[in-house]
Amino acid sequence: MAMMMMMCLRRKEPSKRSSRPGIGCKGRLPRWRTLLVIWRKSFSLWRRTLAVRSRTWSSTTMTCCRRCLSDMTSGRLDWRRRRRASWRLCTISCSLVVKRSMPPRSSLRRPRRSTAAGTKGFFSRIKEFAKDEVDLTLSTRLEFDTPLADLSDVKTMMDSINVVPAPSAPVINPQMPNSATQTSLRVCWSLFSDDTVEYYELYYRPVLEDTPVDSTCAPQVSKVKVKETHCTVTDLLPDAQYELWVTATNTTGISPASEKALYMTVPSPPVIKQRECSSCPEAAMLRWESGNTNPVDSYTVDLSEVGTDGTESGVTESIVAVPTCQCLIQLQTGRRYLISVRAVNIGGPSDRSDVITVSTTGTFFRLVEDTAHPCLSLSEDGFTMFYGDEELPISAMALDDRTFNRCVAVLGDLIPVRGRHYWEVEVDDGTEFRIGVAYEDTERSSYLGANATSWCMRHIVTPSRHKYEFLHNGWSPDLRITVNPVRIGVALDYEMGTLSFFNVDLEQHLHTFNGHFQNYVQPCFSLDNPGALTVHNSIEAPQYTFI
Asked: Which domains does the chain have, with CATH numbers?
């Protein structure tokens, strides 16, 4: 290509001056402009020829030539440098290829000819040269020896960044309401961090009140392994407290243990004290035992009505949050109810207790054994009292504040409801007795009717007749009863402030005490000689009793 440029430069200038105006000797094109035109034509022809015949032409050489031409065209080289660089720029880059691919320069030399003949010969030689395949090889080796870098420090640093820390201690949640049964507990906990955890281990053991200090006798610790933050522990004891704690584990290690939490299984069913339950036409008093060693938060009383045909209705009413082991329930008159009790703690409600039947037909109560004189004995059902002939030893006369110690008497457990109450008493003709009502705090060392806290009817047997007295505060009106009553009805009316006695067999009114009872009273019964006395209750009051 360099030879082509030189041949173009050797063209003679035209002898005649240009006929164009303004262009003469002084109007010639500058040398650098002439060189640029010649270079463009030569380079374009050279590029087309070699691009057709040789597919292995070096892109590096082409790029370099284009850059040289671009610099000259765009004006990046000033006019002084253009003259010097127009030839030298491309000879440096193109000579790498030309020297290897073109024939010797001497073979291209021809005698000087005219410009037209020289140009024609130049193109013919280019065509002949283009017919030959050009084998271009790079003198620079493509293999490079890349030094191996020591990345051990980088690996150590990356490993230290990717290390997963051990989890922090979980936080076990307090026991949720209704989260337990008699034999299971549902436990939940939380992890207040973004630690990675593979699994959790829940530890638990029962809490015993009389656990020895020696650790060998401590309850055995059990463990459960889970992946979630909650777990249900089974096969536990009813009405028991359990101590629980949890740990978290991942590939690095185990977290510290959480703080210990106290969980409780649900209580055992209460036990209703049927002998201490009482009722009246308007209400019922229930008493029961907790039957649990651990504290109970409250109790729930469930009741459902029983129809006349004995079938239970599908509606069950519940009285919740009963704080103590007794409850006064308002009921409807003349109905029968099935009643049960459940104990409730934080874990949930227990199973129902045994069901008892309560009737609101009349007043129902039993004799209170704790108030009975030591010489008295009560039947199993709590409705009959016996006074025997044998004398008891002094050691058997152990008395307390509630027991009668002088009068052979006992109190009945009447429901504390102000209303109308009615019951009947059956006694033999030859038995001396006292029946009536008294305040709960009446004097235990006094006879019934001999003080201001008791009202009673007394039967005295004499050789000539049966004498009856109606005593209060030691005073009795002068009354004579001709027919000995075998079954006596007692009617108490709080609203009217009256206490009346009747001969049930004859429907005969015997006597009525008039007064206002400031406190609740209880039925009282006494035997002055050996014999038996039976109480009949849960009876509907006859019409003639409350007129």
From this structure: 2-9+31-131 (no CATH), 171-264 (2.60.40.10), 271-359 (2.60.40.10), 369-536 (2.60.120.920)
